[in-house]
Amino acid sequence: MPAWFSNWEATGLIGFEDKNADGKIQYLADKQHNELTIDNDIMVLANPEIAGLPDWVVALVAAGGLAAALSTAAGLLLVISSSISHDLIKKQLKPDITEKEELIWARLGAAVAVLVAGYFGINPPGFVAATVALAFGLAAASFFPAIVLGIFDKRMNREGAISGMVVGISLMLFYMMHYKLGWITGVVPPASNWWFGISPEGFGTVAMAVNVLVSLTVSRFTKQPPGDVQELTESIRFPRGAHEAHYIDA
Q1: How far apart are CA 10 and CA 61, in angstroms?
Q2: Which of 123, 129, 165, 171 has the smallest CB count inside 10 Å?
Q3: If DSSP codes are grouped into helix, strand and coil, which group holds residue 56?
Q4: DSSP result, 193-215
Q5: Secondary structure class of 41 (helix, strand, coil)
């Protein structure tokens, strides 16, 4: 095997087992006789070395990936901590807390988020693309309908948005934990058991549709938002200072 194989074998992302002791690596579709294991992430991480590029290029690829991950994680961490401390604790649960207590809640929220992210970093539910798809599925099932309906539906209220988000993210979490992680039964079910043949990575679209349906239904059977909120929803779609369109004959 080439030198890069031995280098990356130490990471556990690629390896082989000579099952028949013939001195050759058999790469077969049959899992019982296949002797080569390849993680999907190896195709991105090891490509510069496989292509024979110098070490500094490999270092740049690694540094770029790490910088992108850290910048994204830092921004999301700030959003999570501020959402918990300000939007949830300050505005909803304890309006009378001091700025110092709000800062403490922000730090606690950030610490919990780091622990959760660290766990899934050590025990990822799939390769990079699958993990990103699951994250976007959770976002689509929870926040996306509330944001869109809050702009384009004057009748959308707090009860409808909260109900839709709870139902959507609960449905997505159940599907992911059952069919991707196997946490509910202890065993990951086969793909033949997927609902309508939809994979966990793509189920966010279904959960999003359920979120929209629940939000619209609940908002129609509960108290409508105040008039000023409906006017704000109506005006937010138009640029400030915009007037009616005028048609000029050519």
Answers
A1: 19
A2: 123
A3: helix
A4: GSGGG--GGGTHHHHHHHHHHHH
A5: coil
Helix (H, G, I), strand (E, B) or coil at 23: coil
Which two tokens mark 218?
Answer: 């609940």
Please tell me the total number of residues recorded for the chain in this structure: 250
DSSP notation for 86-114 = IIIIIIII-TT--HHHHHHHHHHHHHHHH
- For 14, the enclosing helix (H) or strand (E) is strand 14-16
pTM beyond 0.85: the answer is no
State residue 195 phi and psi, 5-degree precision: -70, 120
- Domain positions in the chain: 3-50, 54-123, 127-237
Cα distance between residue 189 and residue 195, in whole Å: 11
The label of the residue with tokens 């099932």 reads 141
Residues 52-69: pLDDT tens digits? 888 888 788 778 888 888
CB 73 within 8 A of CB 117: yes
